[in-house]
Amino acid sequence: MAGAMTVDGRIVRIDRPMPWVGRLLSLPLLAASFYLLWNVALGLRQDFSGFRAARR
Question: Which of 2, 41, 46, 55 is the most exposed place for a label (fewest CB within 10 A)?
Fold first, then answer.
């Protein structure tokens, strides 16, 4: 568990020893979501350019 817990009124604060670990572990998830959005954007662009070319 966390190193220390302090109580300020009704707020309980948990001191985490290394908060950067969570950010570091979330980088692959962030990269995967960016990759997915990039591929969706490329697919939509290709779809719409295909519709525009077929209408001519």
Answer: 55
User: Which tokens is 7 given?
Assistant: 């109580």
Spatial separation of the C-alpha atoms in residues 5 and 13, rounded to whole Å: 6
The alpha helices in 1-56, defined as continuous H runs, are 20-55
Residue 7: strand, helix, or coil: strand
Apex CA 23: angle with CA 37 and CA 26, to 5°?
Answer: 40
pTM over 0.85: no
